[in-house]
């Protein structure tokens, strides 16, 4: 995670969002962060949009005032109409956010919550870390942190962030790995031996976990190491409840392979049960593999964007390039397309911003 100088705080004014606002204050005071407030209005058929906006503008201004009163720097408070997840992703991309803070927690039973579709989409697609804050729990102060790992690059990145937050907030850290239950055949393929394949698989996993932890500097922290066995999402949820964790920090993607845990799917399942708040991070130099269908769609959108640019339909071209970046935030051509579009529209500040980003990419 970067220095948390820029945080996108999304709000729908429900309890989870109110808790997210409290967390934003804690982080802003600790790291000197700047907050951008965003409320997304999803259009409702047969209901005038003006009434939607009028009903939400007041609460947004009140939240802005509350944050400012607590000495938090709010650089912008935006009310935007559109599909929630895509709008949040586009705003985070536009402002180059270091963290997305989102309320999550649709009640599914007595003291049970699921993350909800918007939080799940943002977590899966955002290149930035995403903190999904659950309601009905004490304000996250990063005092009890659970960090599940599967020895992959993204889980190592998650652990580095967990250590940093534990240090900053004086928290306790539990590092957990879950040896997944696998069939004899899968274990045999993984270990390359037929006799005692499943036992050998567990031994191999534990050895990799030991090597994984060897270079992690935790000497100045209160750390507990745990190894469990079973379904990863079930063991993570159980561990969070047993340790009374206020936040789980984990990689949003993980190891692939015939019998490896795909931490991405585990993240989704944890989000479905949401035992506490969840911070997901991605390996900084991993962009993820695009499905062939997405590649074809991106190529089509880029072709349409360039055609619109050449015919001087710059607003429409802008929309095409943004759609590309919603699929692949690291697309250089689309970023350069934004530069050209903003230049042609006379928006020089935005053109310079995306030129710098294109140069970095």
Summary tags:
361 residues; alpha/beta; ten-stranded mixed sheet; two-stranded antiparallel sheet; 51% helix; globular
Give an overview of the whole structure.
The structure is a single chain. By secondary structure, this protein is an alpha/beta fold. 51% of the residues lie in helices and 19% in strands. The protein contains 13 helices and twelve strands. The strands form two sheets. It has a ten-stranded mixed β-sheet with strand order 3-2-1-4-7-12-11-8-9-10, sandwiched between helices. Helix 1 links the parallel strand 1 and strand 2. Helix 3 packs parallel to helix 4, helix 8 crosses helix 9 and helix 11 runs antiparallel to helix 12. The chain is globular, with a radius of gyration of 22 Å. The protein starts with 5 loop residues before the first strand and ends with a helix. About 5% of the residues have low confidence.
Describe the sheet with the most strands: 10 strands, mixed
Helix content: 40-55%
Broad shape? globular
State the separation between the terminal residues, measured CA to CA.
Answer: 18 Å
Stretches with pLDDT under 50, minimum 5 residues: 255-263, 285-292
The topology string of helices and strands comes to EHEHEHEEEHEEHEHHEHEHEHHHH
The class by helix and strand makeup works out as alpha/beta
Enumerate how many helices there are, as a single number.
13
Strand order of the largest sheet: 3-2-1-4-7-12-11-8-9-10
Our Rg estimate from Cα atoms comes to 22 Å
List the helices and strands and how they pair.
Blueprint: E1 6-10, H1 15-31, E2 34-41, H2 49-69, E3 73-81, H3 84-95, E4 99-103, E5 106-109, E6 112-114, H4 117-125, E7 130-133, E8 144-148, H5 153-169, E9 172-179, H6 184-191, H7 197-214, E10 222-229, H8 232-242, E11 247-251, H9 263-273, E12 277-281, H10 292-310, H11 314-327, H12 332-344, H13 348-360
Parallel strand pairs: 1-2, 1-4, 2-3, 4-7, 8-9, 8-11, 9-10, 11-12
Antiparallel strand pairs: 5-6, 7-12
Helix pairs in contact: 3-4, 6-7, 8-9, 10-11, 10-12, 11-12, 12-13
């Amino acid at each position: 995670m970067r220095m948390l100088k820029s945080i996108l705080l999304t709000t729908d004014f429900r309890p989870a969002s109110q808790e997210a606002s409290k967390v934003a204050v804690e982080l802003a005071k600790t790291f000197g962060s700047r907050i951008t407030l965003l409320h997304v209005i999803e259009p409702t058929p047969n209901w005038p949009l003006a009434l939607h906006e009028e009903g939400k503008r007041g609460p947004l201004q009140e939240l802005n005032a509350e944050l400012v009163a607590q000495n938090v720097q709010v650089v912008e408070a935006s009310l935007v109409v559109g599909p929630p997840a895509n709008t949040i992703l586009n705003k985070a991309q536009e402002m180059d956010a270091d963290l997305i803070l989102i309320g999550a927690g649709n009640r599914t039973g007595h003291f049970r919550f699921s993350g909800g579709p918007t939080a799940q989409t943002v977590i899966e697609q955002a290149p930035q870390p995403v903190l999904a804050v659950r309601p009905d729990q004490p304000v996250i102060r990063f005092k009890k942190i659970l960090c599940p790992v599967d020895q992959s690059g993204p889980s190592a990145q998650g652990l580095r962030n967990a250590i940093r937050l534990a240090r900053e907030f004086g928290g306790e850290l539990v590092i957990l790995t879950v040896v997944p239950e696998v069939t004899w055949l899968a274990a045999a393929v993984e270990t390359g031996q037929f006799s005692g394949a499943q036992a050998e698989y567990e031994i191999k996993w534990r050895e990799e976990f030991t090597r994984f932890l060897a270079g992690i500097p935790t000497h100045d922290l209160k750390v507990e190491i745990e190894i469990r066995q079973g379904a990863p999402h079930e063991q993570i949820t159980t561990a969070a409840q047993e340790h009374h964790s206020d936040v789980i920090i984990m990689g949003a993607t993980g190891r692939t392979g015939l019998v490896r845990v795909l931490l991405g799917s585990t993240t989704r399942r944890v989000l479905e049960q949401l035992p506490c708040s969840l911070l997901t991070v991605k390996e900084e130099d991993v962009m993820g593999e695009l499905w062939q269908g997405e590649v074809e769609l991106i190529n089509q959108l880029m072709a349409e964007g360039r055609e619109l640019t050449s015919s001087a339909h710059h607003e429409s071209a802008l929309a095409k390039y943004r759609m590309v970046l919603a699929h692949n935030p690291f697309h250089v051509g689309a970023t350069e397309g934004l530069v050209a579009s903003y230049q042609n529209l006379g928006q020089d500040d935005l053109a310079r911003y995306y030129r710098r980003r294109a140069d970095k990419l």
